[in-house]
Amino acid sequence: MQRQIILLTGASGWLGRFLAPMLHAAGHVVVGLDVAPGPDTDIVASVADRRAVDQAFADHSPGCVIHAGALHKPDIVRYSAQAFIDVNVAGTVNLLEAAVDAGHPRFIFTSTTSLMIRQDVRAGVSGGAREAFWLDEDFGPLRPRNIYGATKLAAEQLCRLYHDLHGIDALVLRTGRFFPEDDDTDRALSGPNLKANEFLNRRLTVEDAASAHLAALDAPGMLGFQTFVLSAPPPFAREDAAELVRDAPSVIARYFPDAAALYAARGWRLPRYIDRVYDPTRAERLLHFRAATDFASVLRAMRAGSPMPFQHDPDYVSPIVARVPTTPGLPPV
Fold first, then answer.
1. Model-level pTM greater than 0.85?
2. Angle CA(253)–CA(205)–CA(113) in degrees, nearest 5?
3. Are 240 and 133 in contact (CB under 8 A)?
């Protein structure tokens, strides 16, 4: 891997706090930019501020941008739709234009699988789904359900446009779930139980999410515009999709015969059905990236009586929430 100066946006966020040290360990110089201070944040500014972005390029001469900064789904209750547009859309334009002007060969954009979850996918079994939705990069049509997903999809399309116009490699990483806090939409299971279940079909560790960005940085050139779904590799085949909806425990038992007993010993429950499966095989094929932690890793930890191989912190607070609020009307990140 060639040593580079990397401009990392979102350096103070949950992903950034793992990604920045990995970049340092790989020999890169990291210039962190975030609206909130942090140990790896050198520039406290918003990506929506074009002058701040241009100044970062003038002062540090980065050779690549990893754009991981954004307003996220939990921020919907705190910020207006216009703030999401300013940060997630205009901020991405600011960085793309600066990267093109600097002659960068590659731009890495952290996106989200959330934009793939249109209403029928979200409804799943309750909406009448008869087989699990198989979510790979060809899944569509894409109809995001909220301003977060809509602005991330718009930013993805800007990455495509700037590749078409300027030839820059634009690699979009649609990350599955890796947040540490509890799911605010599902309280039926404990946080660790739910996270463990999600390694069957929709979750990856934050460490694996960070590693995928290094793989994108080091991938062969001339990839053009590419989108990658990032998740722990699911154990299932597409042929399992209908049975996963009818009787997920039976499918799981075929692949992991002792899973039910291991779960019962903890008082945990396996999912009764699985109505969506994220497929990360393109990342494995083109980026040579495969998540290190999967559902088998969870079961190995159970057998050994070891801690779970994923982060869980129900008290985690995003730096954007913890910091002093921005002046009304100004973009927050």
1. yes
2. 90
3. no
239, part of any domain:
no
**The CATH number of the domain where 153 resides is what?**
3.40.50.720
Q: Is 254 a member of any domain?
A: no
Give tens-digit pLDDT for 61-96.
Answer: 999 999 999 999 999 999 999 999 999 999 999 999
What is the residue-averaged pLDDT of the chain?
A: 95
Instruction: Return the axis-axis angle of helices 241-255 and 259-266, rounded to nearest 10°.
Output: 80
Q: How many domains does the chain contain in total?
A: 1
